[in-house]
Amino acid sequence: MSSKIATNIRYFREQNDWTQLQLANKLNVSRSNITKWENESTIPDLNTLIKISDIFSISLDQLVGKSLSDEFLLKEFERVYSLDQETNDEQQEIIVAIDLLKKNKSLLHDLNKLSELPVRKQKSVLQIFNQLIHEYERI
């Protein structure tokens, strides 16, 4: 589990474009603590995990990498992205994406590996993926 916590702390920190020092200041801890957490040398205590999840505006389940149900994911998407009745098509797309991931474990595995990459590399891979899809559609 510590590997997921380490990966998620780094991922959400980078998503917010924060340095380790900036996150450390927000948590009132030293930068070296952040480094140790991200390198899996130590894991934060429960109170700190709660603070981290609050700072990132995510659930503790998300922070520790617990598997989430489709219904919970949809509710989180609705909360985060303010989905409402007018965006029923988007909700359906989310359900289709979740279903695709459930049926294609290798894709899920690859996406998990992608999520462990630094944000810049993730963006590059996603750009390549988008280009590949567009090229395939042209054929």
UniProtKB/TrEMBL annotation:
The keyword DNA-binding applies. Keywords: DNA-binding. Residues 9-63 form the HTH cro/C1-type domain. InterPro entries: Cro/C1-type_HTH (IPR001387), Lambda_DNA-bd_dom_sf (IPR010982). SUPFAM superfamilies: lambda repressor-like DNA-binding domains. It comes from the Bacteria. This is Helix-turn-helix transcriptional regulator. It comes from Piscibacillus salipiscarius.
